[in-house]
Amino acid sequence: MDTAAPKRAARKAESSSVLRALARGGFAANGVVHLLIGAIVIVISFGGRGESDQAGAFMAIASAPLGFVALWVLAVALCALGIWHALEGLLARNTRDDAKGFAKKWGRRISEWGQACIFIALGVVAIAVALGARVDSEESAENASHGILLLPGGPIMLGLLGLGIGIGGVSFVVMGVLRSFQKQLSIPSGTLGGVVTVLGVIGFIAKGVALVIVGFLLVVAAATVDASTAGGLDGAIQALLNVALGPLLVCLVGIGFIAYGVFCLFRARYARL
Predict the structure, then answer these.
(1) What pTM was estimated for this model as a whole?
(2) CB within 8 A of 114, min separation 6: which ones?
(3) How far apart are CA 201 and CA 179, in angstroms?
(4) pLDDT, tens digit, for every residue of 45-61?
(5) Secondary structure (DSSP) of 105-145
(6) What burial letters (b/e) apply to 159-187, b meaning 16+ CB within 10 Å?
(7) At what angle do helices 99-130 and 17-45 cross, to 10 degrees?
(8) For residue 179, what is the enclosing H or E element?
């Protein structure tokens, strides 16, 4: 049996010009989603209403002229980006023949496969909204948390999930502060390169802060065994509104999401695939 055949097939698919073009489209789609989320978050910071998460962004698109078509385009692009990340994870190699190299390879695989799941899930949500479903992410998050809490060891599992999301948020902040996201792009020189870098710094930090809050809410839900305190991005924004200077902080997060969205549009052009 040729055990190398799956990797050869994966390498051929990953190098496909069609898949790479669709993956770049996925980065652009992700940018559009974050631009809309940022706009909704800013509206909320000024007392408006809206669902400040991906489902809310998709429903905003659905309400626009030809929104149905736009959602299907976004769904295809996001799923393609997810497939590309999955293949990148499968093709990850050891950079050195020792434990450190092994850990680095599997660390990259977990990261790539995690991103694959996220983008494919977003694509599925976009399809659901395109087909007329009304997706309530907060209710879904609470129901999922409640289901986990009912399992043996559920609070520990939910706590670990929240911790993982929180760590992911911290990694986003670190990537923004250290500008390590630059390794993922062929950033142009001059003023444009500086603009892309600033957008990345602001965007990664803002998204990281939001993810840390989401993780914290899940940990609280696990500690109190109360699924109603859990929530997704929309829940994180509502929680942030309730702290001192909440509206100002929420507005800054919204601006950060818009910066991240514009960064993703540039990433569609300059990403190293």
Answers:
(1) 0.85
(2) none
(3) 6
(4) 888 887 777 888 888 89
(5) HHHHHHHHHHHHHHHHHHHHHHHHHHTT----HHHHHHHHH
(6) bebbeebbebbeebbebbeeeebeeebeb
(7) 70
(8) none
